[in-house]
Backbone:
């Protein structure tokens, strides 16, 4: 870890998951005075950009609730480019692949990125070092912290609004582009100097519910479409039928069952991917068998989770993002399905976020290492292809952080001596579950004892690694250049790892 | 206690990914298939792949190979390539007579000698898939001391019967019953046919319950998701386990006292009851370890 990084200055070194004590005060957006009988509606995105005062070198933000269906980011970037504005820092809550954005990077419209991660071609472009300074990777909680303390100052937040009234109240549950909760955008709206709502569903004032209040919204633009509903939310996400994922999910659910935390009123978060979503099926059966309910569930919410709420197995759901149509319907209709902001969810530097009260979380991983460190951002060749998300936040908060991963992907072992990039530190990871064995972090002696009765293939993580190496051989390390193309900021603002450009 | 074969899972022999992961699902036996799952053009590569997998990967369960019948152009070659890797079990499809079994037994004996394997360590089983085979089932089962089981392969059998497969399996009642009798007469295990609609969980459960009641020792499965269901159904009830524990305790006590008569709750316990109790506890143990 270097002491200085070009473009970012002195590195605040990671010293431990809870080592850093924050200083100072919450900062906010510029003071504005909305005058009586004023009109916030502007005719076009171009006009909104003008009104916002956006200039070269400023920072703009977006939310990623529209996922693969998002039109807003590309629309706004095109309009900015037309105006000749350059050198912007793009700070969305996360990024999907976008040819438009790649073009904007090449044109110098966007020269820096601070976000959760990137995928596909965009990931490869960022990894190749096309930005003027390293990308800053933040967790969802870490981003909320950075915004609230001023590390990430947003000049203009462009917020895609599925429903917006004529004075700027916004929700995500009504309209053709409904995305459910607006959790990530709430943080931006509260702290940006200027907030522009972009909507395809402008309605009479007032509306209910209100996710982002009119008091934070400067301008409103109406467009034909802010997203493709098919890309925003899929039909009900189904539990995987992949036998290997089901095997991993069953082991993970058995870890939960015997962990000591599986009691009346426990709390749980499941990821939306393969094995961690599949665990819902097994956990549900075990809860029914033990006749217990959970006090709350946290998400990233999916249909299997909503079913558990509706069947009374979860008392409440705290929801920062919705992945499918049943989840969006549920957050609209069910009073026990509660929308929350990213700060409420996972910010380490407030008086206590939801993750702090989590008993159990199941998290996916790209790679883990023998020190239980987890990588979810770069692939086996060192290329950016994932996102930090709430990974390190929930791992730090939960009593039991279970990481699920296949032991082998193709012919590549996934338990390594050292992960390519640390996103979540091993000290916050309790159990690694693979299809061929389950390894408990040696510092969790209590868990090791509890799991003895679980009839699981328990082993030390080195043993697990040996099984993988025996099958596939030890992978050669990827040769890296000295160029730093990204830094992984831990949720507290310290730098836990850097991403170098592979040779 | 004999080796348990509640689930024998077919794995296509030409799929490296499936061969690699076949051992992780808890099947009692995995059967690498170089017969029906493998097209003619891939027969040679599949048998080499299977042999390499058996040599390289340490599977935690019994490893069987379903070879092509020796009347096809592939059967002998399958044995020639695969036997040196020392599979635990060779499964012959379409068995019709004891002579076939004896011939394969001879080939295996020669291979065991040639490669220095323990004599008799490679077992055999045969699938009955024709009426003729069914009538010879007992002779087939008794044709070699290597024989540990006979199985029914329903698809071909039903085609031979000139009927179709139904949900309740009435067309197989006679064949299944006959096969159980033949297996018991010969003292080998008897394994039921596959249930191919992996998404029809309800139908699968009903069939497994039926064949367990008929006396089958296990079932061929084609998807890992079917394994847990079979093992759960073969899991003895709490009551059976409790009773079996008490039977064995009484048996032990009688042995300790050198007493020839064993009694429990005033009732005499004889050898078959003790055997059954041992069997129940073995199933309970195996189900727990799944």
Residues:
């Amino acid at each position: 870890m270097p002491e200085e990084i070009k473009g970012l200055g002195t590195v605040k070194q990671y010293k431990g998951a809870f080592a850093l004590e924050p200083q100072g005060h919450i900062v906010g957006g510029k003071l504005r005075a909305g005058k009586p009988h004023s009109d916030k509606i502007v005719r076009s995105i171009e006009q909104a950009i003008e009104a916002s005062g956006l200039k070269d070198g400023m920072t703009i933000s977006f939310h990623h609730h529209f996922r693969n269906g998002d039109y807003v980011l590309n629309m706004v970037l095109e309009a900015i480019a037309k105006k000749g504005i350059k050198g912007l820092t793009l700070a969305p809550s996360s990024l999907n692949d976008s040819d438009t954005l790649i073009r904007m990077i090449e044109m110098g419209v966007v020269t820096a990125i601070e976000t959760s991660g990137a995928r596909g071609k965009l990931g490869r472009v960022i990894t190749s070092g096309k930005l003027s300074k390293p990308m800053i990777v933040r967790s969802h909680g870490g981003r909320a912290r950075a915004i609230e303390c001023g590390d990430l100052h947003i000049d203009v937040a462009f917020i895609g609004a599925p429903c917006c009234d004529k004075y700027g109240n916004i929700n995500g549950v009504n309209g053709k582009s409904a995305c459910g909760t607006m959790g990530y955008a709430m943080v931006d709206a509260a702290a940006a100097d200027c907030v522009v709502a972009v909507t395809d569903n402008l309605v009479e004032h007032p509306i209910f519910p209100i996710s982002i209040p009119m008091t934070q919204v400067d301008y409103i633009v109406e467009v034909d479409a802010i997203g493709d509903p098919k890309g925003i939310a899929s039909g009900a996400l189904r539990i995987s039928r992949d036998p290997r994922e089901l095997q991993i999910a069953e082991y993970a659910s058995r870890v939960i069952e015997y962990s000591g935390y599986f009691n009346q009123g426990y709390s749980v978060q499941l990821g939306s991917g393969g094995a961690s979503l599949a665990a819902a099926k097994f956990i549900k059966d075990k809860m029914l068998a033990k006749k217990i309910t959970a006090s709350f569930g946290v998400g990233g919410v999916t249909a299997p989770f909503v079913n558990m709420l509706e069947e009374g197995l979860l008392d409440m759901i705290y929801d920062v993002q919705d992945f499918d149509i049943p989840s969006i319907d549920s957050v609209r209709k069910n009073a026990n399905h509660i929308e929350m902001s990213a700060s409420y969810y996972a910010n380490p530097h407030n008086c206590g976020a939801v993750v702090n009260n989590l008993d159990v979380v199941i998290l996916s991983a790209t790679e883990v290492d023998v020190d239980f460190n987890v990588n979810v951002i770069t692939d086996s060749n060192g290329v950016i292809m994932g996102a930090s998300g709430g990974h390190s936040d929930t791992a730090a908060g939960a009593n039991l952080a279970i990481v699920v991963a296949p032991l082998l992907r193709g012919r590549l072992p996934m338990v390594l001596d050292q992960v390519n990039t640390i996103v979540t530190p091993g000290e916050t990871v309790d159990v690694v579950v693979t299809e061929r064995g389950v390894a408990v972090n040696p510092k969790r002696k209590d868990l090791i004892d509890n799991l003895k009765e679980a009839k699981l293939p328990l082993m030390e993580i080195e043993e697990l690694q040996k099984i993988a190496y025996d099958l596939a051989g030890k992978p050669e390390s990827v040769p890296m250049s000295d160029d730093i193309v990204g830094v992984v900021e831990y949720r507290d603002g310290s730098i836990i790892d850097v991403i170098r450009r592979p040779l | 206690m004999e080796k348990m074969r509640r689930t024998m899972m077919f794995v296509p022999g030409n799929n490296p990914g499936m061969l690699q992961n076949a051992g992780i699902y808890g099947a009692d036996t995995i059967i690498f298939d170089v017969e029906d799952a493998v097209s003619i053009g891939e027969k040679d590569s599949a048998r080499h792949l299977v042999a390499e997998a058996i040599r390289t990967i340490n599977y935690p369960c019994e490893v069987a190979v379903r070879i092509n019948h020796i009347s096809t152009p592939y059967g002998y070659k399958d044995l020639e390539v695969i036997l040196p890797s020392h599979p635990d079990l060779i499964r012959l499809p379409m068995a019709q007579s004891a002579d076939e079994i004896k011939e394969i037994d001879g080939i295996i004996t020669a291979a065991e000698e040639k490669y220095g394997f323990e004599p008799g360590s490679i077992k055999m089983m045969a699938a009955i898939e024709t009426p003729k085979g069914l009538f010879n089932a007992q002779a087939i089962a008794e044709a070699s001391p290597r024989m540990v089981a006979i199985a029914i392969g329903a698809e071909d059998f039903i085609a031979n019967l000139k009927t179709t497969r139904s949900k309740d399996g009435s067309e197989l009642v006679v064949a299944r019953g006959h096969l159980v009798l033949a297996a018991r007469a010969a003292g080998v295990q008897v394994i039921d046919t596959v249930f191919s609609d992996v998404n029809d969980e309800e139908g699968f459960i009903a069939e497994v319950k039926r064949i367990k009641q008929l006396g089958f020792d296990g079932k061929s499965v084609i998807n890992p998701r079917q394994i847990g269901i079979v093992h759960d159904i073969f899991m003895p009830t709490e009551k059976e386990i409790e009773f079996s524990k008490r039977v064995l305790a009484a048996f032990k006590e009688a042995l300790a006292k050198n007493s020839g008569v064993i009694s429990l709750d005033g009732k005499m316990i004889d050898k078959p009851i003790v055997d059954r109790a041992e069997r129940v506890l073995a199933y309970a143990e195996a189900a727990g370890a799944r």
Remarks:
- Chain B has a mean pLDDT of 93.
